[in-house]
Amino acid sequence: MTKELVILAYSGGLDTSCILKWLIQKKFDVVCYIADIGQDEDFDKAKKKAINIGAKDVIIEDLRKEFIDNYMLPAVQMGLVYESRYYLGTSLARPCISVGIVNAAKKLCAKYISHGATGKGNDQVRFELSLYSLWPEGKIIAPWRLPEFFERFQGRSDLIEFAKCENIPVVATPKEPWSTDENIMHISYESGILEDPSVAAPSGIYKMTRDLHLTEDYPSKIDIVFKKGLPVSMVIPSGHDKSMTLSDSLAIVQTLNKLGGQHGVGRIDIVENRFLGLKSRGLYETPAGTILHVAHLDLETFALDREVLRIKKSLQDKMSDFVYNGFWFSPEAEYTRKCLELSQETVNGTVTVQIYKGNVTILSRKSFTSLYNKDLVSMDVAGGFSPEDSTGFININAIRLKEFARFTAQTKF
Q1: In sequence order, which residues have a C-beta less than 8 Å from that of residue 190 and are 6 or more positions away?
Q2: Is pLDDT above 60 for 173?
Q3: Tens of pLDDT, residues 54-85
Q4: 178 contacts 205 by C-beta, under 8 angstroms
Q5: Which of 211, 201, 185 has the alpha carbon at shortest distance from 91?
Q6: Active site residue 15
Q7: For residues 87 and 80, is the Cβ–Cβ distance under 8 A?
Q8: Dihedral, CA atoms, 100, 84, 220, 365, nearest 10 degrees?
Q9: Sign of the dihedral defined by the CA atoms of residues 394, 400, 405, 406, in that order
Q10: Band of the pLDDT at 108, cuts 50, 70, 90?
Q11: Of 182, 244, 290, 387, which is least packed with CB atoms within 10 Å of its CB?
Q12: How far is CA 309 from CA 66, 72, 82, 300, 303, in A?
């Protein structure tokens, strides 16, 4: 009898390797899907491991460019920052991976997609809402929410024991006491010893960025060019009136990650609100994303009308929530995304930034589509501005304040 086919989102780690074996024992054929989104991973080794466990096939797809061009950089353009601090590195990767795995499922006529996300986290929601948006007729197997799985495997020790019994290689017996998620945009760290927010993160935990005392003792200066809010090129002076120009998005992000990492840029240690209602502590390092966001915000404020900027700020906060909660493909996100993209028509120009000792400092900016009027704002020339008009402006705005003061004085006992 023909077995039903499952496409498993596979990482090569303990959880998904055990899930792979468990699915095979449940009489499924399993094809593993590995998305390369810039994580430091030995993909050939992971493929061999999956085949040895019993996978029917392994698909490895390079999605780095796709992730940067269609998720990371549009997030910079839209100014997406969850709860004012988190640049959404993991959240943005989930819809990107979902597109790849759904395409694989459709191509292979699979009936199911499976993943190893836990029952308490955000990723299960992000994956599954994206999968159902892209593949409404599809079915999902989430082992960590199935009693027959989570009652059998109470934790990591049970998985390790199962792996040993099934001859699944277990590399990480003395595992780092926290979990990580990595892509070309960021690395996140959570769980384990990090679950106590009152305890400082251990030294040596960060991988992308240096501790400040180990950073370079000289600043790096770069020019970042934006077109309609999207970073399109970068110029790095190299001395003697020479410079290096990059216009490939992957090269830009890789270079900014390296420079930002050398200067300790992009680290945060925060407590955030998960969609499920739980608060969780997370450590994030996002060097390239931090530099691009800081530069974009400066140019955007320089170019946009004040009221458009404020409306755009409220929309970007909504869009950040949509992305964090897994609604990238929702109708409300599509509508909001179009509004935010429209706001960026005039966000064109170059921002010069300095990267040094954990800081991204704006040195200058220029744009031919900015509303900035040097003559109008100058303290040295009138520039068409009539100072006496300010008197009426102040008087009109003072009416409300005077009336409130009068009312307050009358109602005091």
Answers
A1: 178, 179, 280, 281, 282, 283
A2: no
A3: 999 999 999 999 999 999 999 999 999 999 99
A4: yes
A5: 185
A6: yes
A7: yes
A8: 100
A9: positive
A10: very high
A11: 387
A12: 28, 21, 18, 8, 9
**CB distance 377 to 384 below 8 Å:** no
Given a cut of 50, whether residue 241 has pLDDT beyond it is yes
Is 386 catalytic? The answer is: no
**Closest among 201, 320, 192 to 269, alpha carbons compared:** 201
Question: What pLDDT is attached to residue 166?
Answer: 94
List the catalytic residue out of 57, 156, 179, 233. 179
The mean pLDDT of 115-132, rounded to a whole number, is: 93
Angstrom distance (rounded) from CA 33 to CA 28: 15
Q: Give the pLDDT score at 381.
A: 74
Annotated active-site residue 367? The verdict is no
How high does pLDDT run on average in the chain?
A: 94
Of 17, 64, 94, 249, which one is the catalytic site residue? 94
Confidence at 1, pLDDT banded by 50, 70, 90:
low
Query: Is 217 a residue of the active site?
Result: no
Which amino acid makes up residue 140? I
Q: For the whole prediction, is pTM greater than 0.85? A: yes
CA torsion, points 103, 106, 108, 109, in degrees to nearest 10?
170
| 385 contacts 376 by C-beta, under 8 angstroms | yes
Which of the residues 11, 17, 123, 343 is marked catalytic? 123
Q: At a CB cut-off of 8 Å and minimum separation 6, what does 270 contact? A: 83, 85, 86, 281, 282, 283, 284
First-residue to last-residue Cα distance in the chain: 88
